[in-house]
Amino acid sequence: MANYIVGLTGGIGSGKTAVSDAFAALGVTVVDADVVSREVVEPGRPALAAIVEHFGADITTADGHLDRAALRQVIFADASEKQWLEQLLHPLIGEETLHQLAAADSPYALLVSPLLTETGQQQLCQRVLVVDAPEALQLQRTMTRDNNSREQVERIIASQSSRQQRLASADDVLNNDGDLAELREKVAQLHQTYLQLAAQAHD
User: Fold this and answer.
1) Is pLDDT above 90 for 142?
2) Can you give the pTM of this predicted structure?
């Protein structure tokens, strides 16, 4: 296990991926819960078989992969289905996340999770970094990126913990309201801080 783990979280469209990419470019091992959640439902994995059995074959694409958009519509329309899915996937995602953190080979690792505080994953972390952006910017970025309607994005934002709750759990806040160069500069400064903290934790 990496002896120092920084948890990275933020609302949808806040720019978590841009931030984690900037850390990765500096040689930091990044474990992304969203990526892990896609890996555990890849064709051939038991989770996908269980999802197909529960929701039916319409939930997969022609090539046998999970149709995430179709699944999202089902679970956002029915809270009990969302709960069923979470009970199936959360333990599997947790297990795979721990496995990847254990294999981290940088001075500290970055655990990226939109639900870091809601799922108790922050207990794995020595420090929490929240990527923050104004809600109007979150909306605009997500609508552009995912081709989602404004209503759908607003529903997703409403289903995540509030900005206040996230900021209350933060040790560090990165305001991502500028350009990429500015973002990389902020990440580089945080990287130095985390290297120092990881070295102290190691002593």
Assistant:
1) no
2) 0.81
